[in-house]
């Protein structure tokens, strides 16, 4: 997770991830032409993203194409979600859902014969 967090900490790398999210598959040249920084600098960012597992590359002829692999973001996403709590209606709906589950469980315990069908 630290490697992924380090990779997404840079604004250029986040922009590359957004490009690949929107365009699915881009060559290194297509990615580099969208930045004011040098092509070798973009290549270094792509290497960091590839080493963190966030992008995969494929060599086709003389061109290297990149695609997003968002599955490596899941541990970071789960960790970040722990810092957000439901507010407003989301909190009330979560409480209602908990109460419904508790009531159903108690009914099943009180009337087990109704649940055999």
TrEMBL record:
Coiled-coil blocks: none
CDD domains according to UniProt: HTH_ARSR (cd00090)
UniProt cross-references to Gene3D superfamilies, sorted A to Z: Winged helix-like DNA-binding domain superfamily/Winged helix DNA-binding domain
GO molecular function, one term: DNA binding
Keyword Membrane attributed: no
Keywords, alphabetical: DNA-binding, Transcription, Transcription regulation
NCBIfam families given in the database record: HTH_metalloreg (NF033788)
Protein name per Swiss-Prot or TrEMBL: DNA-binding transcriptional ArsR family regulator
Source organism (scientific name): Saccharothrix longispora
């Amino acid at each position: 997770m630290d490697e992924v967090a380090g990779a997404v900490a840079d604004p250029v790398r986040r922009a590359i991830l957004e490009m690949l999210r929107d365009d699915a598959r881009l060559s290194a040249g297509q990615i580099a032409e969208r930045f004011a920084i040098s092509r070798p600098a973009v290549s270094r960012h792509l290497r960091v993203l590839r080493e963190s597992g966030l992008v995969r590359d494929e060599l086709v002829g003389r061109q290297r194409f990149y695609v997003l692999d968002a599955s490596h973001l899941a541990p970071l996403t789960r960790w970040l979600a722990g810092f957000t709590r439901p507010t407003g209606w989301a909190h009330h709906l979560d409480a209602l859902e908990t109460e419904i589950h508790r009531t159903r469980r108690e009914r099943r315990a009180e009337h087990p014969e109704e649940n055999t069908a």
